[in-house]
Specification:
The structure is a homodimer. By secondary structure, the first copy, chain A, is mostly helical. Chain A is built from seven helices and three strands. The longest helix of chain A is centred in the N-terminal third of the chain and has 22 residues, at 16-37. Chains A and B meet through α1, α2, α3, α6 and α7 of A and α1, α2, α3, α6 and α7 of B. The structure holds a DNA duplex.
Chain lengths: 162, 162
DNA sequence: TGCGTATAATAAGTATACTTGTCAATTCCC
DNA sequence: GGGAATTGACAAGTATACTTATTATACGCA
């Protein structure tokens, strides 16, 4: 019996669920450290929201959530915090008064231009232990897996129709 | 300019940070659905904690946190909830009264035996879009990356010395 | 036209996953 | 043996990431 116990611990650390969580912890930690080094107060979620808004100004919160695969309720809080920082502005859509149109402010746009290259530059360091070829392979596999299971998450990616 | 905008959106969805977050959403969602189907109220974190306690009964909270790569503060809340459910018991260590020893209750042990095979069985479905060979490759790459960057996360894995 | 359905957002609640700060108990070192 | 440094846990605060419920608005259709 002690044998099976020992194995079960070893087994745990090979499970995809565990490994993915670890990588997520590492990824967010690296992002956070880089932002702190730049003396910025911005989370990965907030960066994603700003990026999507740059490409799609004036979209409503639900559409924004779909573009970056977030829950609609969660995005509300994110927009609140970005709004408090003066990076985005919310206004009521005249044609559909249920909807809030969200756009970057000039400050938000300036900040995004400043940090986008930083965020792009930090990405490879998330997979620092891998060679260049392995990194590319990992990204391809992750894309394939995420695309295949998109609808199994609570907040699926809903890309805008082109 | 519209060209670079279009590219920047495309680029975003290929970043490791984004893909890892998506996979984590998918992974936790699948876990949650399976537990709900079994009429159980247990999160991935809670399962990991129970598993580690089965192999290492009576360890203190900080050691437990290190074994599953969690923050010490976070684990306190997890233990609280497991304790409320009657799955673990906390007692003060006689030799170091700062430390709380945590152990599985008989109920916790029974539950763990019941769900461990379920959790193991659900793991492949997290990477459902991949072939068997790709899954093995992904796991190997993820393990390598997580191990290499272990100390860059806020809560590194601290395995027990054998 | 009006009523039921659908949608957008918010509210309240739970559970991670951290941060910093505090406190108590212990251990180290002189 | 006694003070300093360390350690384990908790408290309070922030930020995702959900759930369910509620409110307001819009839309479809008979």
């Amino acid at each position: 019996m002690p044998d099976s116990d020992t194995h079960s611990q070893t087994q745990f650390h090979q499970m995809p669920g565990y490994l993915i969580r670890r990588l997520n912890q590492i990824s967010t930690s690296i992002f956070q450290d880089r932002m702190a080094a730049l003396q910025l107060d911005l989370t990965p979620v907030q960066f994603a929201a700003l990026s999507a808004l740059q490409v799609n100004p004036g979209i409503d919160q639900a559409t924004l959530a779909g573009l970056i695969a977030y829950d609609r309720v969660t995005i509300g809080g994110v927009i609140d915090r970005l709004s408090t920082k003066g990076l985005v502005a919310r206004s009521i859509n005249a044609r559909d008064r249920r909807a809030r149109q969200v756009s970057l402010t000039p400050e938000g746009n300036a900040l995004l231009h400043r940090i986008t290259p930083e965020v792009a530059a930090l990405q490879p360091s998330i997979l620092d232990g891998l060679t260049e070829a392995e990194r590319a392979l990992f990204i391809a596999l992750a894309q394939k897996a995420a695309a295949a299971s998109n609808d199994r998450s609570r907040a699926p990616l809903r890309p805008r129709k082109p």
